[in-house]
Predict the 3D structure of the following.
Amino acid sequence: MMKISNVEAFAVRIPREAGQELRERGSGASSTYFIPENRHAFKSDSHETLVVRITTEEGLVGYGEGQSPILPDTTRTIVEDLCRPVLIGADPFDVEFLWQQLFDGMRERGHPTGFYVDALAACDIALWDLKGKALDLPVHKLLGGRFRDRVEIYSGCAGRDPASAADRAERLVAAGYRGLKLSPSRDRAGTVAFARAVRERVGPDISVMVDVHTEFDVAEAIRLGRELEALDIYWLEAPTLPEDLAGHAEVTRALDMHVANGEWYRTRFEMKEAFDRRTCDVVMPDIGRTGLTEGKRIAVLAETYNIPVSPHIGGGGVLATAATIQLSAAIPNFLIMEHGHESFPSRCRYALEAPQPQGGAFPVTDDPGLGVWIDDEALEGFSSPA
């Protein structure tokens, strides 16, 4: 039996490059972490994430990522102090058993989500990568086989004003993207102005989505959605507070356009209640939060409700992106995947080989594991000391 001999966790911080400026700072302006003026959520000066490296006695290595855009040292500590003792000596092929053992380890303690499950996700993805490399098979084969040869992607389309967003949209369409997502403003009029400028610039054949990051109450979200419907916006994402399932369901019922949400959920248990109450038309699991084991279960559950899956990426880096490609290839109800066209290259700075989009899609390859090869020296160089 193959056995795990080492589990290492890295709190990665990659400085943002020119052209990746954040919106104006609001609260906490002098700190590494701050709340920007246009959002409620903390952001960081750097791209931050958690990477896990799992090694077997035979010398095989697998890598995983748990989304940690804030405080990756926290998820690193969880891996080192809780996950590593369970994984050392275990058979890395027992992926689902190990997920369950780790999940149950904090379930009764009231931690079935949050930082703990993000850390678990990194370990889970690393185990799938290791298993694929051991068998010389891509992870999508291990998940059941490919449904498609290309994973279609849309790009985020930022701008400081409607005109700059429209200019960026034009460049992204020229690069091959057929879908764009705006995250424009905290007020309804400003959001509509951004959407109108981009729609007028790219024309009717490009899918345009709008993410409002839970900033609106239910009534205002419905009013916004109706104005966006007139612009043929494909979906309204995260319209109101994550905890307000009744509110999301009300918005979904009121609008003809799609409502997309779910990036904050990490397990099928959370998703089931959201699906039962029809809180969305499109679900957006983040594989850097769910891991591949639970991500596949969520996709299967969504299929039973006839809900398409559009995986979220957000703060995920190269390994989370690669894992998302593998899952997206292996499920029947995949719709489209998020991608950061401008931020992704800098998030690959510790990868020797990484997936590259072609014409608005990621090709699905037969490279073993996740199809990513990591530069260990670079990884360690971007990691904060333990």
Observations:
- The two ends are 31 Å apart (CA to CA).
- The chain is about 40% helix and 20% strand.
- The first helix runs from residue 72 to 87.
- The longest strand covers residues 4-15.
